[in-house]
Amino acid sequence: MASAARCSLKRAGGAGILVPMLNLSPSGEAAPLVPGTTPVGQVVEALLASGRATLQVAGPGGEVAGTFDLVDYLRRKGPVEAPHEPVQLHLQDPLDEAPAQPPLADGRLWRELLHALLSSPDKPMAALVDPDERILFSNTQLRQAFPDAFDGRPLRIRDLLPGHPQRRDGDASPISFWYVQNRERCFMVLKTRACADGVGALVLFELTAQLAQGHKAALDEVDLLKRVLDISVEGLQVVDARGVITLVNESFLQIHKLSREESEGHLVTDVIENTRMHIVARTGVPEVDEFQTISGHAYVVSRIPIFKDGKCLGAVGKIVFQDFREIQRLAEKVKRLQMELEALRKSQGKQHRDTRFTFDDIVAVSDSSVLAKERAMMGAPTSSTILLLGESGVGKEVYAQAIHNLSPRHDRPFVRVNCSAITETLIESELFGYAEGAFTGAKKGGRAGKFEQANTGTIFLDEIGDMPLEAQAKLLRVLQEREIDRVGGEGTMPVDIRVIAATNQDLWALVEQKKFRRDLFFRLNVIPIVIPPLRERPADIPALGTLFWADLQKTHGVAAKVLTEKAKRLLAEYTWPGNIRELRNVLERTFTIVRDDRISEDQVRMILLGVGSTGGRLNEQDESTLDRTVEKAERRAIGFALARTNNNKAQAAKLLGISRPLLYRKMSQYDIS
């Protein structure tokens, strides 16, 4: 008996009953004999861990009493309701040898899986299930994890895990993976489909709360993205920097009559004829609204590069039009309009282009600034309205010019309008122009407004939150109808413009305060881009400082003047309430005021002290008292003098025209060290 079955004794619970702990041989060896008094539940667990389906059971005298066949037992008995019954009650007729294992296609898949999992030191929660997802058998780990569920009643997966997990794979998959959250516990669920033997396996891996939350969020985001791409984008494809297709949607597969296996993972040049996706992915230069012939049909396609940290990671392509007759009709209309516009442009004279910034001028190192730059680059080739949000000095106009220069309108007018700088009485005539005789002093022949000047190009509405409500109503009509009315004029004039708006205010708060039109807000908020303040992206400060300093060296022709490492570190640690504009201002003051070639930390600190919270300017809206105004002026003068003399008190006093004792008193008074 001992040679036929290896076993040990374990005390069950606290009852003092000794039961054998089976240690079966791997499935490749001869089936061992086990005592007939062994609990059937323990025999089943041992079979699952060993990868077996059968074993032979010994009678009282050590003879072979019969064979326990797990699959046959589950077919006849259904769920194991009495796991403590002796195995000798559930035997087949005695056989000379164990029946042969069924082939893999007939159901060994679940046994192979459980053998691999349950034979490891860390045993997961496992169960056997039938095609109706009834739990036929559960191991000790599963019962201990869900003690309230196993009360003797028939149990299904949905009873064990309320809110049955939604499959990520199809029902026909041999093995499926799910994620499910049961109250405050999170599980990764693995299930093998019931095969020819009518039995499948269920395995649960409990996840930590943080891992589960992140996993669920990632799955939901990917699932949502796939659904959006399948529904909203015609013929979408994504390639990496090598030109290998990494993602396609259903529309792409239908247009090209391909399967996903024939497209994803292959070079785009091997899948699509006349493609240029690999070129865009390599060069980073977008191609918008280009013609492409595919299988004898003409399409209009756009190919947009994907950037991260200034590096092109690949490209995304989409089909804009499939109906070639519609394309021809639109092309003829565009050609006619272009001829009309060209004639109008010649009559008005050549437009002056006043944009000089591109995306190469935008420094983005921090994650938040990289995200803003990428979003702007993705929106630039479109004609959609863009709303730039951010504090004063973060570079909203730089973004606006970069977007314009990357758009198809890059060679057309770019007109900037500061809505806060135009008085309420003049804003309508400034934006929409006026007809001859519209009011006293009106120019003969009338005057074109900003929208008319920006026709075929881009209009940048800066500080849009300060626009009066009456002008907002007219702006809304321009955005809806794409036509303007001159003040005092008759009839309307069509305009073709791309609108970029910017504000440092909370527009939604203004909407709730009835200071900004709700319908205009939604018209402007098509592609919102939040430009983070400099204090939230400290990694950008060294790169911006290097860029500005090199520009100052070039402008002033002084290449020898440099900042020490401690001075750079001081600049990086400063909070910059005035953002990029203040950083540029401080660097320019430092460059021009300090005469030394090596500028120290103390000299930069004095410049920062002199600039203060007003950026070195007196604010006409500042309600400070006379004493406070004098204090600011004296602080600024002392800071600049100390910086210029490299903290030499005697020279600083001489430069200020005061005695050295008076300088010391002022420094002590204002806590200047």
UniProtKB/TrEMBL annotation:
Keywords: ATP-binding, DNA-binding, Nucleotide-binding, Transcription, Transcription regulation
Gene Ontology BP, a term: regulation of DNA-templated transcription
Source organism, top-level taxon: Bacteria
Domain Sigma-54 factor interaction residues, every copy: 362-592
Pfam families linked: AAA_lid_14 (PF25601), HTH_8 (PF02954), Sigma54_activat (PF00158)
InterPro entries reported in the protein's UniProt record: AAA+_ATPase, AAA_lid_NorR, Homeodomain-like_sf, HTH_Fis, P-loop_NTPase, PAS-like_dom_sf, Sigma_54_int, Sigma_54_int_dom_ATP-bd_1
UniProt GO MF annotations: ATP binding; sequence-specific DNA binding
SUPFAM superfamilies listed in its UniProt record: Homeodomain-like, P-loop containing nucleoside triphosphate hydrolases, PYP-like sensor domain (PAS domain)
Listed name of the protein: Sigma-54 factor interaction domain-containing protein
Classification of source organism: Bacteria, Pseudomonadati, Acidobacteriota, Holophagae, Holophagales
